[in-house]
Specification:
With 369 residues, the protein is of the alpha/beta class. The strands form 2 sheets. Strands 6-7-8-4-9-10-11 form a 7-stranded mixed sheet, with helices on both faces. 30% of the residues are buried. The chain contains 11 helices and 11 strands. Helix 7 (235-242) packs antiparallel against helix 8 and helix 8 crosses helix 9 (272-286). The chain starts with a helix and ends with a helix.
């Protein structure tokens, strides 16, 4: 009876996988032989769960290529809600389904068997044991770094967000370097745009982003993974979609503008009659569709201002959140602008004005070269 029960259970599992493959258009994956260079090549891959339950818009499939020789680590950037996590998780699920003996949701899939599949996603804590969200994140990250091999598949989503920006970027940066050396095929999603510099530093790291289409203050999420880095995150817009009060959203935009300019916000907010009121009106106007309960238009389109969410690397203010070397041209432009703003034009002699003009020209031309 025990042997019969095991046989029936096996047949039931195989029949279920076959039925799901037939009903959902799965294909038979190709598994690379042992000893062959490691590779994951998925064409038109889909998430087997989300494609069944996402009824408000059609599921957008994506191509993903990981190659141990040339494209070992994909650094994935892009706006909030664009679909970074979905793309990464569907790759992990396709790998898992293939190694379980199932057909997979894709047009085609060529996979190297993985010895382990590591994931670090989501946020959780264990306060009863004195473990914060960040501590648990680091415990999971430590387990990955200690055990991942060149035959592993690693999925990392937003490492380092539970601490300060400098600490978070530093930890994430060092983790990417470690995984690159270990050789594990890795998908790494991040909002730390500074990490995209690693594609220039490490030979097998590539930048990808989940793209959007901007039309004025309107965003349309394409859900497509494309080569290259994103230089914007739309966290403030997502906060507005979630229902943050318009004055808070407006003030957040003001603070963001200060940070982009290389300054730190100080003191109280401007009176409502100045820039704050104008910002609040802009935020309320931009939320016509989204503030009434969700994304405006098909495909998750939502209104947003499209402000950059990070400072230019040229800013050298102590509050600048960047690990990268300053951009000399941008730094020179900012210093010249500050000098001109502080200048007492009426008190300048002709000779002083001529000398000042000479200094400005020398500074700008020397930084250009």
């Amino acid at each position: 009876m025990q042997r019969t029960a095991r046989a029936i259970a096996g047949l039931d599992a195989l029949a279920s996988l076959a039925q799901a493959a037939r009903e959902n258009g799965y294909v038979r994956p190709t598994l690379r032989p042992p000893g062959a260079p490691r590779r994951i090549a998925i064409v038109q891959g889909r998430h087997p769960v989300i494609e069944r339950i996402a009824l408000d818009e059609p599921f957008v499939p994506n191509d993903v290529l990981l190659d141990a020789a040339e494209q070992q680590i994909l650094l994935i950037t892009g706006p909030n809600m664009a679909g970074k996590s979905t793309v990464m998780r569907q790759v992990a699920l396709i790998q898992l389904m293939a190694q379980a003996g199932s057909f997979v949701p894709a047009r085609s899939a060529e996979l190297s068997p993985a010895d382990r599949l590591f994931t670090r996603v989501g946020a959780a804590d264990n306060l009863a044991r004195g473990q914060s969200t960040f501590l648990l994140e680091m415990i999971e990250a430590a387990n990955i770094l200690h055990h991942a091999t060149a035959a592993s598949l690693v999925i990392l989503d937003e490492i380092g967000r539970g601490t300060s920006t400098f600490d978070g970027i530093s930890i994430a940066w060092a983790m990417v370097e470690h995984l690159h050396q270990a050789g594990a095929l890795t998908l790494f999603a991040t909002h730390y745009h500074e990490l995209t510099r690693l594609a220039q530093e490490l030979e097998r790291v590539r930048n990808f982003n989940v793209s959007i289409v901007e039309d004025g203050d309107r965003l349309a999420f394409t859900r497509k993974l494309v080569p290259g880095e994103a230089d914007k995150s739309y966290g403030i817009q997502v906060a507005r979609l979630a229902g943050l009060p318009a004055p808070v959203v407006a003030r957040a935009h003001q603070v963001m503008d200060l940070l982009v300019a290389g300054n730190l916000p100080g003191g109280a907010a401007e009176p409502a009659g100045a820039g704050a009121a104008e910002g609040a009106e802009a935020a309320e106007g931009a939320g016509d569709g989204a503030d009434k309960g969700g994304p405006a238009g098909k495909g998750g389109a939502a209104r947003a201002s499209g402000r950059k969410s990070r400072s230019r690397s040229g800013a050298d203010h102590p509050g600048q959140l960047s690990m990268l070397a300053p951009d000399p041209a941008a730094q020179a432009e900012r210093l010249v602008a500050e000098e001109l703003r502080a200048l007492d034009v009426n008190g300048l002699t002709p000779l002083e004005a001529l000398n000042l003009l000479g200094r400005i020209k020398t500074r700008l031309t020397s930084d250009e070269t």
